Amino acid sequence: MESSKGRPVWRGEVKQVGTITVTDDTTGKTVKLPLLEGETGPRAIDVRKLYAETGYFTFDPGFTSTASCESAITYIDGDEGILLHRGYAIQDLAENCDYLEVCHLLLRGELPNPQQKEEFERTITYHTMVHEQLSRFYSGFRRDAHPMAVMCGVTGALSAFYHDSTDILDPRQRMIAAHRLIAKMPTMAAMAYKYSVGQPFMYPRNDLSYAENFLYMTFGTPCETWKVDPVLARAMDKIFILHADHEQNASTSTVRLAGSSHANPFACIASGIAALWGPAHGGANEAVLLMLEEIGSVERIPEFIKRAKDKNDPFRLMGFGHRVYKNYDPRAKIMRQTCYEVLDVLGIKDEPHLAIAMELEKIALEDPYFVEKKLYPNVDFYSGIILKAMGFPTSMFTVLFALARTVGWISQWQEMIEDPQQKIGRPRQLYTGNPGRPFVPLNKRG
Ligand code: CMC
């Protein structure tokens, strides 16, 4: 793959650094497996030929010890709380770039120079309108439909409109599909909001930045000239950056798996949106705010901490814990700072949810249960407070996550399609059903 500067995207190599020998203690049979090393991060045992050579599978439900692909896009060191996109620290990107620069970085492998930035912005801006017929889809939904349900539907429906970018074997069509998805997602998300409140859809404006345009399409109305507060637009942009990509999480893996069958990109992204919706993943930002509302006051925090620690109670502290981070999620730190800035510019003092969140964080970070299990606040812990302050209803929180993650999904999808090792994803299982029995005719079944 080439960056838009015409030189290859920086991509390190996976090297074999040795072998590892596995012995079956029941038979004494041994097998030597290659030991692989990427640019950085843990080594991996290459089990690709294991079944063919030994007849054994590996067993890893939840993929806690499995690398599913090679990727040069995002790196996470969960113990140190490090997140890099194409080698750049998330803190540097959030501080110094806008979201579209980060999109360029993820999708094309490099940060854009000024000319490339202008070109990329223009390309995205000129794809923001959706086919007029697509707007009819919205009226098929109930007004009280969850906007994530609407987003799953309309994103999947894009494949019915943009046939000229569904040939996944054509690099140009792949790139056009990527541009369309990044560009149209804010329009479709804002339309989902407008539909839910019964207001007219707002067409995108080409004179506004990506984040400004989204805020305008969401909160503007045709009746008045709507001014976007630059601090809020910057905060929105930063929230998009913080959600742009996160390695092989559940929704990204879903996109890759769907894409591995050569499904079209719009269908793949719709599958990612569906996976993101769950409260253990992107749905957590909505769940955090609902939890803070349920807690209601600082005095009730100990009761909820107790419940979170109780094995017999399904309640979990939403916005806490992460499969990979066993340290403070670096995105959560930036999000907390952004939260203060937004509340400040909006003149919101003594925000009750913020007070509960801060106290909850303090107590949880000192509690042995959370300390021992290395459960820290994640990206979703503070984002809901910011989004609520900006005027978004809770049901829109995960939609904003989906909007911002679209670039990550499509970049990972593209990387997968370009990977010569790409195969259809097809895991196996440890079968626990009946091993085989004689058929019983209906009249003989008791
Ligand atoms: N509250 C209470 N206990 C928890 C929590 C929590 N939020 N998270 C994990 N634990 C406990 C869990 O009960 C388990 O205990 P034990 O070992 O005694 O059985 C231990 O910590 C390990 O948890 P796990 O569920 O095995 O870990 P996982 O890696 O499978 O799950 C997680 C990660 C994010 C799903 C989980 O921490 C969780 O459900 N958190 C709350 C939901 C949330 O905030 N999700 C957003 C994740 S970040 C944004 C994103 O990527 O989407």
TrEMBL record:
<dbReference type="InterPro" id="IPR010953">
    <property type="entry name" value="Citrate_synthase_typ-I"/>
</dbReference>
<comment type="pathway">
    <text>Carbohydrate metabolism; tricarboxylic acid cycle; isocitrate from oxaloacetate: step 1/2.</text>
</comment>
<keyword id="KW-0012">Acyltransferase</keyword>
<dbReference type="GO" id="GO:0005737">
    <property type="term" value="C:cytoplasm"/>
</dbReference>
<feature type="active site">
    <location>
        <position position="322"/>
    </location>
</feature>
<dbReference type="GO" id="GO:0036440">
    <property type="term" value="F:citrate synthase activity"/>
</dbReference>
<dbReference type="InterPro" id="IPR016143">
    <property type="entry name" value="Citrate_synth-like_sm_a-sub"/>
</dbReference>
<dbReference type="InterPro" id="IPR024176">
    <property type="entry name" value="Citrate_synthase_bac-typ"/>
</dbReference>
<dbReference type="InterPro" id="IPR016142">
    <property type="entry name" value="Citrate_synth-like_lrg_a-sub"/>
</dbReference>
<dbReference type="InterPro" id="IPR002020">
    <property type="entry name" value="Citrate_synthase"/>
</dbReference>
<keyword id="KW-0816">Tricarboxylic acid cycle</keyword>
<protein>
    <recommendedName>
        <fullName>Citrate synthase</fullName>
    </recommendedName>
</protein>
<dbReference type="InterPro" id="IPR036969">
    <property type="entry name" value="Citrate_synthase_sf"/>
</dbReference>
<comment type="similarity">
    <text>Belongs to the citrate synthase family.</text>
</comment>
<keyword id="KW-0614">Plasmid</keyword>
<dbReference type="InterPro" id="IPR019810">
    <property type="entry name" value="Citrate_synthase_AS"/>
</dbReference>
<feature type="active site">
    <location>
        <position position="380"/>
    </location>
</feature>
<dbReference type="GO" id="GO:0006099">
    <property type="term" value="P:tricarboxylic acid cycle"/>
</dbReference>
<dbReference type="Pfam" id="PF00285">
    <property type="entry name" value="Citrate_synt"/>
</dbReference>
<keyword id="KW-0808">Transferase</keyword>
